[in-house]
UniProtKB/TrEMBL annotation:
Organism encoding this protein: Herbiconiux daphne
SUPFAM superfamilies xrefs: Nucleic acid-binding proteins (SSF50249)
Phylogenetic classification of the source organism: Bacteria, Bacillati, Actinomycetota, Actinomycetes, Micrococcales
Stretch list, region Disordered: 115-134
UniProt entry tagged with the keyword DNA-binding: yes
The name this protein goes by in its record: Single-stranded DNA-binding protein
């Protein structure tokens, strides 16, 4: 079973990018998501609890994240939620992870410029014996 979740938050760490021996691109970063609410008694906005997520993107998304996302930026992440309990001899805890399907800047807080990355088949030379249909 997988739950799809969409989260807005602040990128807490610069993305870490690795390429596996099999050639798979993987990027991950920590995301902090805090809820603000208006307290009518004090007549001001107050910060709620902060939830922490590890966000992971694969393949082309990993490349795009590495080139586009930086610590401190506000983003929107959608993907599959995974909650895992862990335990050592001294401690125990829970990791909350998102396997991202999409990541982008939250335009409520600023603007961004989009640059399309050409696909490999778009940049490959066309065969000389077939006319280019475009």
């Amino acid at each position: 079973m997988s739950d799809t979740i969409t989260i807005t938050g602040i990128v807490a760490t610069d993305p870490r990018h690795i390429v596996t021996q099999a050639g798979l691109d993987i990027a991950s970063f920590r995301l902090a998501s805090a809820q603000r609410r208006y307290d009518s008694e004090s007549q001001k906005w107050v910060e709620g609890e902060t939830n922490w997520y590890t966000v992971t993107g694969f393949r082309q998304l990993a490349v795009g994240v590495t080139e586009s996302i930086r610590r401190g930026e506000r983003v929107i992440v959608t993907g599959k939620l995974r909650v895992r309990a862990w335990e050592t001899e001294d401690k125990s805890g829970t990791n909350v992870e998102i396997d991202a399907d999409a990541i982008g800047h939250d335009l409520t807080w600023g603007t961004t410029v989009y640059t399309k990355t050409p696909r490999a088949e778009d940049t490959a030379e066309q065969p000389t014996d077939e006319p280019n249909p475009f």
